[in-house]
Structure formats: structure tokens, C-alpha cells
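Subject: two folds for Thursday's group meeting

Dear M.,

Sorry for the delay on this. The cluster queue was jammed most of the week, so I only got both jobs back this morning. I'm pasting them in the order they finished. Each block is the input sequence followed by the predicted C-alpha cells. Could you check whether the formatting survives your parser before we put anything on slides? The first protein is the one we discussed after the seminar.
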Amino acid sequence: MQDPLQFDLSLMERYKSPSQKVRAMSEDWVQKTVFCPRCGRFLSSYENNHPVGDFFCKNCLQDFELKSKKNRFGNKISAGEYNTMIRRLKSNQNPDFFFLAYKEGFFVNDFIFIPKYFFTPDLVEKRPPLKETAKRAGWIGCNLLINKVPKSGQVFYIKNGERIKKEEILRQVQKTLFLKEKKLSLRGWTLDVMKCIDLIDSKEFSLDQIYAFEKNLAQKYPDNHFIKDKIRQQLQYLRDKGYLKFISKGKYKVE
């Protein structure tokens, strides 16, 4: 009996290119295995080279794009042409992302869902243009800096070869769904404060611990001269949305 975390190796016979083989096998695995992170129903696949994504949910009407790579993800993942990615982030047609890392033998080691509302333009790294001698001279690619996404936005289906319970996956996605309603131009501050909370590495934290990131945030937002006020505003927003719980004066807890 085939391991449920292994690709269907019989698909390799249909393709010559190693990248085509991995793409076919990884998409087949997702199609057969992965459920929609919003509603829990199974996904449908688009035809190859569809401009919006690789999969969609008939119930949620949401699109998903799959990025696969061998071994660990690292801090960044290659994500196509830079200007195209920036336009997609600013549009209503931007898909959510699935990231799949496989190991030797084509076994899935990690599978992560990151909702589209966790990506802002500053998480897209512009790569140098291809040299004039290249087939696509001048082409500018990009990387998605997934290490800068808050932990709550990195929803694991599989982590180090271990499956996460479906109920936990759906709960974690629902927990941050409020970010979808926020405009892209206003979302950066919220995500930055969420990332600061992650760096404290504790469920409970104080206002002073968040204030410790004031200089870092001031460097990112040099035109804002009221950093502490903005931090408190974002904590209030996160509390109102149920992401945080107010414990006592200057004390918070991640729900």
C-alpha cells in the first residue's frame, strides 16, 4: 500500500523534464489529499497554465496557487515575475498560496497554507534581471519572503512528516480571517505588530515588550512620529477581532 505522503510515482513516465514531473506529481497529490482551508471541502483543479491559480474551491469560490520545492523551504520561495506578482497582490484576483516541501523519494515533508491577505508588497523580494545572454534577457523574477509572515499565517497541514488535525487547521484559518476585510494599504501595520508579538515568543506579553520594537518600526515607517500610539491602536484592533485577549493594564494574551 502506498504511503499517503508519497507522490504517485507512476506519473513520472508521462514527462521528460524533471520540473514537469514534480509539478504533475505534486498537483496530483494536492488534488487527492488537500481540503479547502476555509470550509473543509475537497478542491478542484484548473487546467495547466491557468492565469489565476492551480486549484479552486467550488464552495468558497477561492483560488489557490501551489509552489513546490525539494527539501526545506528556507526563508524565501521563488514566485515568478516581479511586476506580475505585485499587480496580483493589489488585485481582487490574487490567489491564496500552498507551499509544499518534499524529501528524497518524493515524500511530502511539509505542506503549508498561507492566506493571500498575509502578503504585502514588502514581502516580495525583487531579484536582479536576467543577463543579456539569457534566453529571457531582462526578465525580473521575485521571491516571497515567507519567513516574514506571522506564525498565525503559516498554517501547517503537514509538519516534519506529521499531519495536523483538520479541526485545528480550520480553526487557525478562521482565527485570522478578519484580515481579509482590511485594505492592503492598512494591513501592513497590523501584520508588523503580529510579527513583533511572534518575536516575544510567549502567549502572554506586556505593552512594554511590544514597545521594545519601536525603533524597528520607526525605521520601516519613518514618516510616522507616533509609533507607540500606532502600536496601541493595532493591539486594540487585534483585541476587538478576538486575536488577543486583554488580561490587565498593559497585559495581553494571544488567543
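Second protein, same layout:
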Amino acid sequence: MHRILHVGLGPLGRIIVADLVERGLGRVVAAVDSAPDIAGKPLSTVVPKAGAGTLTVLPSLDAVTNWRDIDCALVTTSSDLAKCAPTLRDLLRRGVSIVSTCEELLFPWLRHDALAKELHDLAVKNKARLLGTGVNPGFLMDTLPVFATAVCKSVRSVHVWRIQDATTRRVPFQQKIGAGLDDQQFAAKIKDGSLRHVGLGESLHFISKYLGLGVTRWEESIEPVKAARDLTCALGPIPKGRSAGVRQVANGYAGDKKVITLEFQAAIGQDNPHDRVVIHGEPPLDLTLAGGVHGDIATSAITLNCIAPLLAAPPGLHTMATIPMGRFAPAHS
């Protein structure tokens, strides 16, 4: 069983810890969260499914003492790689391999080229490994379309849709897509960068790199999805006409030719949720996951399923295309 250091016990982190124990994939030997209402509490009170025990949530990595007992760290703290960087550096310097849900870490060379090189060098020097993953980015709009082309003789372009009903998603996700906001509030949050699906550009450049599509420029748009009727969600009521969610579209061009289109839409009460990948090539492919993939369940699953493949990879900064193929991991004895 994997011995895990878990960093970040927000809603997603708690789901991952509970699933780790329930699936029999490992045990948490240290847990860290700096939030005053979490640090110092028994892990079993923060995540009841973690089971009874004496493990206490620590306020920082400096408080961890059992480094030799740790096989891998799971970091579920921020979408922003710059904010995660101090934690990642500290772990890599100690030789600890990391699977993180940081969206920008899926393909960090897009926005953080120098930092990506630094983290890679640290990992190699200390014989550690680093991976950013998740359901999206991490699989549905990047890894899945790339791996689907294994049966293709040629690929001209890629079009991916992720259309989600966000009604059952966790509260931070509903906040991130702007559920319940009026036009002025929505525009203000776009301006300050707090309202967007993080990772669409990373997914686009992941596809371009691994399929050799040669994107030379790209663009991204964002707009609210308006509620067509009165709705309600975990954040409260959403009157008709207010934002029920967000729609983002990213296009990548090789010269003047559009070679990648990614369409992301997540809204409360979204009709016909689905995930779809269309490959224009030889042979052409059209894959649809009816109903769509539940983001919280899948993010936890892929994070845990990637531990073993990452640990089997050589030291360094990895992507989902450079580790052994991730798959469902059965329980370890």
C-alpha cells in the first residue's frame, strides 16, 4: 500500500483521502493544511472515512517529521502553479514524488516555462517525480483525445466538447463558474481572474505538442451561461437571467488553419451534459460519453490511479503522456 502525505484538505482533498482509504490503495501517514479551522484537528474528524486514528493535521510541511515513511505526496491546494510552487519545491528537495491537481501543472510550459525547468531540475537532482493531473485538464479534453489517435494514420484537427451539469459539483466549483452572479459581478470576476475554467490553454497546447499540430497562436473566449428559468444550487437560488455557469472556447491555429477547438461549458441545470471528442483524420473518430463524466468523482479517481504509474517513471517533471498509461488501480493488499 502506498504511504501518502496529503497536502490540502479542502472539499476535493477530503474526497481524495476518503477514496484512498475506501479503495484500499494506501494510507495517509501525514496530512497538512494551513487553514486555522483544520490544522491541529485529528484527520478522522476532518475526513471521517479516513477511520479512527491518532493522526493530526499539521499546519505546514515544516511540522512533518516522518519523511522516510512517505512514498508519494498528493497536493490539492491551488489551480495556480506559482502559488503551489513553494510546496512543490519543498517536497522535491526532500526527494518526495508528487501527484497534484494543480491545473496549470498539466502543461506548465505554457505560462511558467522557467518554473517548469526549475521544478524538472529539482526533481531529477533529488530522484523525485512530479505530475499534474485531473479529469479536466488531465484527461477528457487532452489525454483522451491524444490517446484516441493511437488508431489514426493521420490527424488534421481535433474538436473537443465538455458540457457539464454543475448541479451536483462541489461548492468551490460552482463558485468558480460564476453560478448566481449578475452581469456586473460576472464581469468583475473575469477581470480579477477568479472566474474561469483553469486549464483550457494547457489542454490545447498538450494536444498540439503530442499530436504535432504545430499551433502558432491561440485565443480564448469566456461568457456567462444565463439561466433560462429560476434555479437553485448549493450557493442558493439563481433567478432567471442571472449566470448559471460559464462557457469558454479555445481555438488553436497552425498559421491560418484552425487545428484545435476546445469548448467547455458548465452550468447549473445544463441540458444534455456530455463529453465528446472528434478527430478529423484517417480514420475519423467521433467519441461521445453520454451524460458526461462527474468531475469530482473522476478527479479523485485519476489522481489516485496515477500514483503507481508516476512512481514507475524516471525522475523529473512529467505529463500524462510521459508516464506509463494510467488506468483503474485495484486495491493493494
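Two things I noticed about the second structure. The first strand starts at residue 2 and ends at 7. The mean pLDDT is 95.

Cheers,
T.
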